[in-house]
């Protein structure tokens, strides 16, 4: 695969120190962390997920015959110059364990810092790295859409570019394929400020009520998709509502969806933007627009 760098028009060291991983694990407490396996329950027809309740036990690698045939990892990134190289190199280090073919796509969403420059340098040095540039900041949803469009492999992993997910946890998601078409990460101990955790819980509750989804961490930025389902939907959300739109549309296609507990690491560089008022307001506008569209579609089919 030749090294590629493209615009949206064309495309329409180590991961973390052992100390950081130990800190994340030690924060799990004496309850969930005391059990290292995933406990699931069978849900009645119509429920789209199974709930993983306990701390994850990661497979270090998959046997050759169980590896994914091909995996595109895309990283929505905005002003992540302090993270992008570490995150990309972290994925490159572990992907051969879990996929026969792979690529890492950095979606630079109009960064004002050196994110795009660093990503281009990584792409020039490694043919597995691809960069998609947005000349202007268009929002998280637009970055996700560009990543989906740029992906070429049969499986696609959304992984936020902020470095808060451990690439090795790909093994937890990949282990549920091909039994499931979509495997959604669930942050067992979310390493975010309290206001973000409160907002996230309230948003997820609203989404579950409106769309009938059984996902417990709708905005977790670590999701594995069978690309066939991504190819069958058209996405519109430009902001934070994109995760809800992704899951609502794919669930509507009858995809088999499960949920798996994953680690969530503290952000070590850059700033979070999800709690800003304009981001929240745009998410609500797009949410009710999607709800109206899907509701009208159901009435039309009825």
SSE topology:
Blueprint: E1 4-7, H1 8-11, H2 18-26, E2 68-77, H3 84-98, E3 99-109, H4 115-125, E4 129-134, H5 140-150, E5 155-159, H6 170-174, E6 182-187, H7 194-211, E7 222-226, H8 227-230, H9 242-252, E8 257-262, H10 277-301
Parallel strand pairs: 1-4, 2-3, 2-5, 3-4, 6-8
Antiparallel strand pairs: 5-7, 6-7
Describe the structure concisely.
The protein has 302 residues and is of the alpha/beta class. It has helices at residues 8-11, 18-26, 84-98, 115-125, 140-150, 170-174, 194-211, 227-230, 242-252, 277-301; strands at 4-7, 68-77, 99-109, 129-134, 155-159, 182-187, 222-226, 257-262. The chain is built from ten helices and eight strands.
Structure, explained:
By secondary structure, the protein is an alpha/beta fold. Helices cover 37% and strands 18% of the residues. The chain has an eight-stranded mixed beta sheet with strand order 1-4-3-2-5-7-6-8, sandwiched between helices. The radius of gyration is 18 Å and the shape is globular. The model is unreliable at 8-54 (pLDDT under 50). It is built from ten helices and eight strands.
